[in-house]
Write a structure and sequence with these properties.
The N and C termini lie far apart (56 Å). This protein is mostly helical and 228 residues long. Helices cover 84% and strands 0% of the residues. The protein has one domain.
Amino acid sequence: MVLQVLSALGSFSTFPTGLLLGFPALFSIMDPLGNSVIFSQLTADRSRAERVMMARRVGLYALVILLCALWAGSYVLTFFGITLPALKIGGGLVVVATGWHLLFGTEAAADSADKPGEQPLPAADMAFFPITMPLVVGPGAISVAITLGAARPGGSFDAAYLLGVSVAALAVAATVTLLFTYADRIGRLLGQAGSRAVKRIVALLLTTIGVQIVALGVQDMLIAFVKP
């Protein structure tokens, strides 16, 4: 009986490794605190109930995407012949487009006001795109998740390690949900003028982050060509 218990505990020896490795890596790349500021700006025209619903959906969507990337990401990319540099470039361009739209949001809103046929994006759809993807779980986070899933100890399938990384993903997604739920308080503290200023700064940073992601993808592609 004792030997069986020790054997079971030994099988979970890689669980702390996955947990301690996955949480800081995913938390730093997803930046829940910084993204909560962007979320408060993107959803400034929504009601409190809509923002809470969107925050919960973002957390759920983020968790599902991370788990898929952790457990099957490398196999999916291999099946479709997609490389991580290509994923970075494509996702980075979407981040740039999102930041550009946020930077000139006033002008875009004025233009859309002249087009009565256009309707605002539904909250449920907006929660997935562009908030969950590519803002919260962008190409960088997906790349990190795929790398964590592929970095199994010994190179073989390790359920305990993957479970540890999955718990880390759950903790980060829960943090995103919590911070996004109360992101509207940030807007009230900043005020209208402060919110506009923060919106421009965050939009510029978001655009810059997108450019940086594209640059990293191009760099990885060039390295692959230059090495041979």
